[in-house]
Amino acid sequence: MSTPFSDTPAGHPAAAPDGAAGAPPVPLVSVLIPTHNRPDYCELAVQSVVAQTYANLEIVISDNSEDDATAQRLAPLIANDPRIRYLRAPGCSALENFINCYDSSHGEFVNYLMDDDLFHPEKIARMMAAMASGPKVGLVTSFRMLIDADGNPLPSIKGTERLFEQPTAIGGTSFAELILRNGSNLVGEPTTAMFRRSLLDRRFGVFLGRQYTTLSDVATWLQVMTQADAVYLPEPLSYFRLHGGQDQRNNRVRIEANVEWLQLLCDAHLHGKFLTDRAALHDMLTGKLMTAMWFLTSVHDEIKGGAIEAERVQTAVRSALDILLTRPA
């Protein structure tokens, strides 16, 4: 499998080591890699972090695989790089694996790396420079290049197109409302974005006190943007791999995503963070509720069979109806 590191941004030297003479302290960045049964891809992912030009990193790997193949594959890398901390977490869920990484890390800045994705060698250095560009910047994201199972570049698909052609600062409220109106993760998957730890509500995937699962990344980006702004970089600083082992398109994930998009909208409005224009919200929420109900009723047998807890569906629908039917315009 190849690594697509040919498109290298120029003019950005490596960060000075923490504590180097004459240099200010370099903030610690935590790169978190939850992994499950992908030893080949995970090895490439870890190698892409080890190759970063930014020096002050900790690399936390949480492995809930069903065997020791990943541990054996990573052993040489772990032995040769003291920045890597490997955690074995058999039996925990995907979300618990994410949280285990987070709870075991210490960096002021955090960037997840999915075990089948890759970082560009200058991703962390470029994003830390953007993070320092303004006092209210709490999230930095970029264009991400799609790659196939073997690491070959793929054309962009809907939802992954480049947002801007130049580095662009975006107000947190404006960006969050654009995400909610479009019902699309414009920031990108966990691999894509770096965020300030201090802006999270306890842990990854929590938005305004509610834990999200399928849309845990969107919930995190929205939580950060309740307090901070964002920067978008147009270079491909991460590589999102499309392959047959992913589950983004199975019905259980689609059911959870429909419910969670509806809940995100309602929670944002009810807490007065985003979408405060009642008239505009009424029209948008009506359309989204109708679409969600059409889809959810079409898969009612799977919901009855346990694809999602019925109470989660009912909570989201009740929240939407409460906003539409009982709250004054």
TrEMBL record:
Pfam families: Glycos_transf_2. Keywords: Transferase. The keyword Transferase applies. Residues 1-21 are annotated as: Disordered. Gene3D superfamilies: Spore Coat Polysaccharide Biosynthesis Protein SpsA, Chain A (3.90.550.10). Residues 30-203 form the Glycosyltransferase 2-like domain. Residues 9-21 have a biased composition (Low complexity). GO terms for molecular function: hexosyltransferase activity. It comes from the Bacteria. InterPro entries: Glyco_trans_2-like (IPR001173), Nucleotide-diphossugar_trans (IPR029044). PANTHER family: GLYCOSYLTRANSFERASE, UDP-GLCNAC:BETAGAL BETA-1,3-N-ACETYLGLUCOSAMINYLTRANSFERASE-LIKE PROTEIN 1. This is Glycosyltransferase.
